[in-house]
């Protein structure tokens, strides 16, 4: 029997019910030689002239199978390359544009870390695309405020605080406010193919960045398997959610994709909105065709999980 569990809470509610009050959270206050993967302006114009579909998105992806030669250390993984390579191929076959794909020693936590205050370079990479996908290890630690956060060991820090990515240092998709200067963000949704990426307290994990822009996060509650039978998960999601016509809702596609006859991973999603009902609607019905990222005022959160 499959189980589908859903919750919705405002940002500052406790787990024993809903509270009418909401707060914004804390929203105030050299390149190495690898291919940048960023289309120059003349190429972007050429793509439009050649009929690049207006509905398509651009995306970036990173993965690690080995942490050999890295500043962070972790056990090797066997199928993360399959996951990202299959995802990338499917996305491109559907008409979407890959801006970058990096692996192993070329994965930097700075790529998804805020440039203002946290010395990241997200404006060049993770926040310069509509979607970012990562496959590797992940953990649910505690941030400096005592809340649950999400962390993931990349290979190198490349200027930022640590080679370990921390969601506490992410400000993605920001269009207004102090973090939008000097580099406004673009990112709308993320796929974290890791353990604990949308765990038991997604508000604590993701509010720093979702409050100011990021629309949607897909990931796992608890452990996720590095398995031959789950390497197709991101590809299967893209097949349904990112197709040109009649795309599936993100939640439906994610929970369908994580279904597996052998591995019982628990997929999870989190979205936010301006009101309780808006957050629930965005969690359940968000599609590729929706506009975004949002600007401010999305302090209600809704999340769900499904055991595959």
Describe this structure in words.
It is a single chain. The protein has 308 residues and is of the alpha/beta class. It has one domain: 3-Layer(aba) Sandwich (Rossmann fold). The chain is 19% helix and 19% strand. The protein is built from six helices and ten strands. It has helices spanning 41-49, 80-93, 202-210, 233-241, 250-257, 276-285, and strands at 4-10, 58-63, 97-103, 131-135, 151-153, 164-166, 189-193, 216-220, 266-273, 300-307. The strands form two sheets. The protein has an eight-stranded mixed sheet with strand order 1-10-9-8-7-4-2-3, with helices on both faces. A two-stranded antiparallel ribbon has the order 5-6. α2 links the parallel β2 and β3 (97-103). The chain is globular. 49% of the residues are buried.
* Low-confidence runs: 1-52
User: Termini separation (Å)?
Assistant: 10 Å
What is the total tally of β strands? 10
Helix content: 10-25%
- The helix tally amounts to 6
Please state the second-level CATH architecture: 3-Layer(aba) Sandwich
| H/E element sequence | EHEHEEEEEHEHHEHE
Beta-strand fraction estimate: 15-25%
Q: What oligomerization state is this entry in?
A: single chain
Task: Specify the structural class.
Answer: alpha/beta
Major β-sheet annotation: 8 strands, mixed
Q: Shape, please? A: globular
Average pLDDT works out at 85
Widest sheet: strand ordering: 1-10-9-8-7-4-2-3
